Amino acid sequence: MVIPHSLRRPLLSVADNLRHMPSVVDATNTTIDIERPARQVVSLVPSFTELVCSMRLGSRLVGVTRFCVEPAEIVTPIRKVGGTKNPDIERIIRLNPQLVLANREENNEEDVVALRQAGLNVYVGDVRTAQEVPAEIEKVGRLIGGISLKTADSINEALEEQRHLQRIRPRVRAAALIWRNPYMAASGDTYIGDLLRVCGAINVCEDSSGGRYPRLQLTELIALDPEVILLPSEPYRFRERHAEELLAQAGMSAAREGHIYLCDGQNLTWWGTRTTAAIHEVSSLLDHARAGWQAEAATTPELPPGRNLNGTQQDVVE
Question: Could you give the percent of the chain with pLDDT greater than 70?
């Protein structure tokens, strides 16, 4: 078939498409409008740094925080620009990056304002649910010209699996602590809190009216009576002795049943390339407190495709 001249549209090359990049709106409702993918990037967030490297664009990072430690073989030689809460604004300005990646929770608003006033493009993310992660990955990819379809697809598959399982497994009361002296827990208005919810937990600290990370006295935690307590390795580095302190509190179901677990803090707090692993880890740990449900559920017809209830957590959604 011959297409009339008037209906023909020129084919755009990859380079042409990159020159016509759509703008991106960030969590502060600021439009980031750059002509082409940023080739010089400063990341003020560990999860953003890891995401950029997962897109094989680590060479574009000209500055990262001292907390951006993964992947070590890529980030170790990159210039450090301070911490997440106290970045070296003057050094970042001197680097003159085409894009700065920041986060509403991890970075201070005044630092973002200072960088923008210096004329820099600053993208501010704010991921509070696992479901938001694929869209955030797509936005960052558009800004730097990278793709991470495999990561986004695996997250969506893991979320779909959990939605199926919600219909056939019991829920369990749980708490995820992020600090000690005083104890602080993740409320429902946090990424960690959403991981609990996604994996079938009833977060005993769901209420965020007292803050997104409410403080708890030990007596209050005991009164909430979680059946499972998660102790991630960051931001506070919980160790075996801290788990033993809580296991000694016989007034809690989690202590009596031995369901207090040290877990990977990077998985639980670094959204992005780790989100799928985090879902699998949290779901597996919660399963210890709802033992036996797999055998009962195996007789139901509602199993998600590919789910083997008798397999290990690593068998799920490869």
Answer: 85
- Interatomic CA distance for residues 247 and 181, integer angstroms: 17
pLDDT digits 0-9 by tens, 235-279: 999 999 999 999 999 999 999 999 999 999 999 999 999 999 999
Q: What confidence score (pLDDT) does residue 298 get? A: 62
Domain assignment of residue 117, given as a range: 14-150
Question: What is the C-alpha to C-alpha distance for residues 46 and 278, in angstroms, rounded to an integer?
Answer: 16
- Domain ends where: 86, 118, 150? 150
Dig out the tokens for 143 from the structure.
């800004």
Same domain, 242 and 146: no
State how far the Cα of 196 lies from the Cα of 206, in Å rounded to an integer.
10
CATH of residue 175's domain is 3.40.50.1980
As given in the structure block, the two tokens for residue 96 are 């003159």
Q: Which residues of 21-43 are buried (b: 16+ CB within 10 A; e: fewer)?
A: beebebbbeeebebeebbeebbb
Domains contained in the chain, number:
2
Residue 231: phi and psi, rounded to 5, are -120, 90
Do 146 and 176 share a domain, yes or no? no
Does residue 89 lie within any of the structural domains? yes
Whether residue 57 sits in one domain with residue 175: no
Could you count the other beta carbons within 10 Å of the beta carbon of residue 205?
A: 26
Residues 99 and 31 in one domain: yes
Report whether the peptide linkage leading into residue 232 is cis, meaning its omega lies within 30 degrees of zero: no
pTM: 0.84
**pLDDT tens digits, 109-139:** 999 999 999 999 999 999 999 999 999 999 9
pLDDT (mean) for 5-25:
50
Are the C-beta atoms of residues 32 and 143 closer than 8 Å to each other? Answer: yes
